[in-house]
Specification:
The complex is a heterotrimer. By secondary structure, chain A is mainly α. Chain A has a single domain (2-291), classed as Orthogonal Bundle (ABC transporter involved in vitamin B12 uptake, BtuC), CATH 1.10.3470. Helix content of chain A is 74%, strand content 3%. The model of chain A is unreliable at 288-292 (pLDDT under 50). By secondary structure, chain B is of the alpha/beta class. Chain B has a domain at 5-90 and 158-241: Rossmann fold, CATH 3.40.50.300. In chain B, a hairpin with a 2-residue loop joins strand 9 and strand 10. Chain B is globular and about 55 Å long. Chain C has 16 helices and 2 strands. In chain C, helix 3 packs across helix 10 and helix 7 (160-182) packs antiparallel against helix 10 (206-232). Classes of the chains: A mainly alpha, B alpha/beta, C mainly alpha. Chains in contact: A-B, A-C, B-C. Chains A and C meet through helix 4, helix 9 and helix 11 of A and helix 5, helix 12 and helix 14 of C.
Chain lengths: 292, 243, 353
């Protein structure tokens, strides 16, 4: 029982960072109908950037976030402009998957060359402090990670709900045709929407780097989890991404605490298969008329 | 005689939108039934529900004496219920002949036979002759004009020798000559024993071609009767004028 | 060209015969080693093409099936002796069957939805299978790697059995591809690729044909994995289930031309020989991933059609310039009396004489 509750606490605290990454992922899908397979690689790249800033200049990973956010936004817009926009409409969905996969490998290759393939971790002064509440361990880092993820998520939602541009994005997500008729410039929305989605990778990268050791290949683990979360929540739904992150993260933490850490790495795959069997459109997805 | 197609209390909701809201209608054998209604009245959704592209939240579809609610489109097609789409969907990368051949509803064993056998060619050639499209047989469908694509799509769904064909706006977006051609092909096939259910906006076409006419408004049928009665029916006028 | 009867078959036989005669030129070990790897990728690209190229569903997880094949064969011969050295080759069909069955189960779940979700499931599978290979230490020995029996072949001609088996497998895969293209199965797949929802509506057995080709495709991939494992004699999870294998298969298919018989083979001949030769000249390098990804992006952006279809469309355009550009009703030159010559393996349509 103790292990179960400890797992739950850990799972909820970890869910924050996954919710953040998955929101970016699902936002990109919503705006462009593109599954960005490079999202995980961008998170790891951000973690490396934070690591670089920390080891070279002593910048705290959390303070590095504004810098990496700008970098990831620019990278995202660049990827959209250079590789996704030129694709022809007829096989856009097929090619965009392959293109973003290639971008992921490009980033992985770049990271392997720059930082080698050994595991890295960011060891801040507060990395090992923790509290004990009622017999349960809560590490300071995880609490920070959680709060920061919520804050970043809040900023994203504010951007989407309170700004003119955010409304244009949401209109595009709901109905691209009428958004275009209402004067939303779809090219701009796609580029900036993609950039916004990848920008979430920056904050997530700093947080991820604080929580886990990482290497250039870590993005496979990450992208697999992210995609399972997004499919579980329903592609294109931010609320779904958050709920999906909670479910996947707590269930793998609970499996790790009660069964074995090795099997917890499989949890998301089991969840993905179950979702596809029981509710392929995901929790918040609808079988819209657009499907036909 | 029992109706060929019976739709009973069909309903489908998308989020908060009740696209089809308890619609019922019957298509008698050998009729050309029209389905009309203002934009957004649920005609295409109803087509999707009948042909198995969507499964209804509630209600039933009976075709040829069997309950086929939510059956998959392929099975319905092989049983003799075929449909066309509003935007003239053909396979652009296939040739005209291939577009027809692929639509014949094959069994598993036939799938391993030749891509186009002599028998296929003969059958396709007859159909192309009927539709006066023999001269474009070898073109890719992407090279056809929009009107020709509409004709091709119509011709293709006849490959399975259907009992009932659902046409979604067969004359939308094509020139007057092509409208006349389309009308004529519908008549010829009707004379040969095929039943039609047609969504159509062009009222003169409906008047010339169809009987009876079913009017759909807000996802529900509000009128069924001969074409002459439609134009004078107050309910229908209300629906169209938005009173 | 199309008027020669059996031109396609003759081309195929000549190609296979040329391949089969290559070892008798007593090539150096390094060059026949390159040939072995090139053949592996030629088979795998053709296999990928059989599903991914014909249906338009981009599978990113084929490397997982390569790994499944490698480990299946390795684990079997952990408990069974090898005496003549040919037993592992005889096991290959079973390896393929096993992987094909996994493919059916997985496909039945992942192929009911859209291409996006399918790609998600396959990339996830890649990671899951690799993680399993690492974590199931009792079975796979995890990161320590799995040893296979050393093939008892004479050192001078060590590579030849592998080479010939791969030539046979390539011939079989190309024959399957050819027959698929010539059958209604191929026509159904083309309809799926063009417009799957429409295809469902005209009675095409969309799920069935996708499942069938997917499982054949991954089965063949697994067989190559088995051959690779035996050839290497020692396999590690990170090499047996390597995303580079997937990207290699996809890249070669796209470069040569997806949905064509010869495209994947040509793509493999170009890329794998280039890569292996560079590796031989320069030694191993971490820049592979970058180079591969860059070439891949370039091909996608500049030549998404690939080599073979580009040539085909040039030929086609030249043959029938008159027909397409003609205003009004097209001339009757390509009318139905010419349909007797219409077969579809290279150039689709005959133009006016």
């Amino acid at each position: 029982m103790h292990a179960l509750i400890q797992g739950l606490i850990l799972g909820v605290l970890t869910a924050g960072v996954y919710a953040l990454m998955a929101s970016g992922q699902t936002l990109i899908f919503g705006v462009m109908k593109v599954v960005n397979l490079a999202q995980g690689a961008m998170v790891i790249l951000s973690a490396y950037l934070a690591y670089g800033l920390f080891t070279s200049f002593g910048v705290d990973p959390l303070l590095a976030i504004p810098v990496t956010t700008v970098a990831m936004f620019i990278l995202g817009v660049a990827v959209q402009l250079a590789f996704l926009r030129p694709l022809h409409d007829e096989d856009r969905s097929e090619l965009s998957l392959l293109v973003t996969f290639a971008v992921a490998l490009l980033i992985e290759g770049f990271m392997s060359v720059t930082w080698r393939t050994t595991d890295r971790s960011i060891n801040t002064s507060y990395a090992n402090s923790s509290w004990s509440v009622g017999g349960y361990q809560i590490t300071l880092v995880r609490l920070w990670a959680f709060l920061l993820s919520i804050a970043a998520l809040g900023v994203l939602l504010l951007l989407l709900n309170r700004t003119r541009f955010g409304r244009a994005i949401r209109a595009t997500v709901q109905n691209p045709e009428s958004a275009r008729l209402l004067g939303v410039e779809s090219n701009r929305v796609s580029a900036i929407g993609f950039g916004l989605g990848t920008a979430t990778a920056a904050a997530a990268g700093s947080i991820y780097g604080l929580l886990y050791p990482f290497n250039p290949g870590s993005h496979y683990d990450l992208i697999s989890r992210l995609l399972s979360i997004v499919v579980l929540g329903g592609l294109g739904s931010i609320a779904g991404a958050i709920v999906g992150a909670l479910i996947v993260s707590t269930s793998s933490a609970v499996v790790a605490a009660t069964i074995s850490p090795a099997w917890s790495e499989m949890t998301f795959f089991v969840i993905l298969i179950l979702v596809l069997l029981l509710r392929p459109q995901g929790i918040f997805g609808t079988t819209g008329r657009g499907a036909i | 005689m029992a109706a060929l197609l019976e739709v009973e209390g069909l309903a489908k909701t998308f989020g908060s939108l009740r696209a089809v809201d308890g619609a019922s209608l019957a298509v008698e054998p050998h009729s050309i039934t029209a389905l009309i209604g203002p934009n957004g009245s649920g005609k295409t959704t109803l087509f999707n529900l009948i042909t198995g592209y969507l499964s209804p939240d509630s209600g039933h579809v009976r075709f040829d004496g069997r309950d086929v609610t939510g059956a998959n489109p392929g099975r319905l097609y092989r049983r003799g219920l075929s449909r066309t789409f509003q935007q003239a969907r053909v396979f652009p990368q296939l040739t005209v002949q291939e577009n027809l051949t692929v639509a014949a509803g094959y069994s598993w064993a036939q799938l391993f036979g030749r891509r186009m056998s002599a028998a296929d060619r003969e059958r396709v050639a007859r159909l192309l002759e009927e539709f006066r499209m023999a001269h474009v047989a070898d073109l890719f469908a992407s090279e056809l004009s929009y009107g020709q694509r509409k004709l091709l799509e119509f011709a293709a769904v006849l490959m399975s020798s259907p009992k009932l064909v659902l046409l979604d706006e067969p004359t939308a977006g094509v020139n007057p000559v092509m409208i006349a051609t389309m009308e004529q092909h519908i008549r010829e096939r009707h004379a040969a024993g095929v039943t039609f259910l047609i969504v159509e906006h062009d009222m003169p076409v409906v008047m010339r071609l169809c009987d009876p006419v079913v009017v759909l408004d807000q996802g529900r049928e509000i009128f069924t009767g001969p074409p002459q009665a439609v134009q004078t029916n107050p309910l229908v006028l209300d629906a169209y004028l938005g009173a | 060209m199309r008027s020669i009867p059996y031109a396609g078959q003759i081309r195929g036989v000549v190609f296979v015969a040329a391949l089969a005669s290559l070892p008798s030129f007593n090539l150096a070990h390094w060059s026949i080693n390159i040939a072995v790897f090139t053949l592996m990728f030629a088979v795998m690209s053709s296999a990928w093409n059989l599903f991914g190229g014909f249906t338009g569903y981009p599978s990113l997880g084929h490397a997982a099936f390569f790994g499944i094949g490698a480990y299946t064969l390795g684990l079997w011969f952990e408990h069974h002796a090898v005496t003549t050295g040919y037993e592992p080759f005889l096991m290959l069909p079973l390896v393929g069957l096993f992987a094909g069955l996994i493919g059916v189960v997985l496909g039945a779940i992942a192929l009911r939805t859209r291409a996006d979700v399918f790609a998600i499931v396959t990339i996830t599978l890649l990671f899951v299978v690799q993680t399993l290979a690492f974590n199931l230490r009792g079975l796979t020995h995890g990161a320590q790697g799995l040893a296979l029996p050393i093939p008892p072949f004479a050192a001078a001609t060590f590579e030849r059995p592998f080479y010939y088996v791969l030539v046979a497998l390539l011939a079989a895969t190309m024959a399957i591809t050819y027959l698929t293209m010539r059958s209604k199965l191929g026509l159904s797949l083309a309809a799926v690729r063009a417009d799957e929802d429409k295809a469902r509506g005209v009675g095409v057995r969309t799920l069935g044909v996708k499942l069938l080709t997917f499982s054949v495709s991954v089965g063949i991939t697994a067989m190559v994995g088995g051959i690779w494992a035996y050839y290497e004699s020692f396999i590690y999870p990170q090499f047996a289930i390597d995303p580079l294998i997937t990207i290699g298969m996809v890249l070669m298919t796209f470069l040569g031309g997806r949905g064509t018989l010869w495209g994947p083979v040509i793509g493999a001949l170009i890329l794998e020989t280039a890569q292996q030769t560079l590796a031989y000249e320069l030694g191993g390098s971490e820049y592979y991933l970058i180079a591969y990804a860059l070439v891949f992006l370039l091909v996608m952006l500049l030549m998404p059609q690939g080599i073979v279809p580009s040539i085909q469309s040039v030929v086609r355009r030249r043959r029938r310039r008159a027909v397409v550009d003609a205003p009004g009703p097209p001339p009757s030159a390509s009318s139905s009396d010419r349909t007797d010559v219409l077969t579809r393996d290279a150039v689709v349509v005959e133009g006016p004489r």
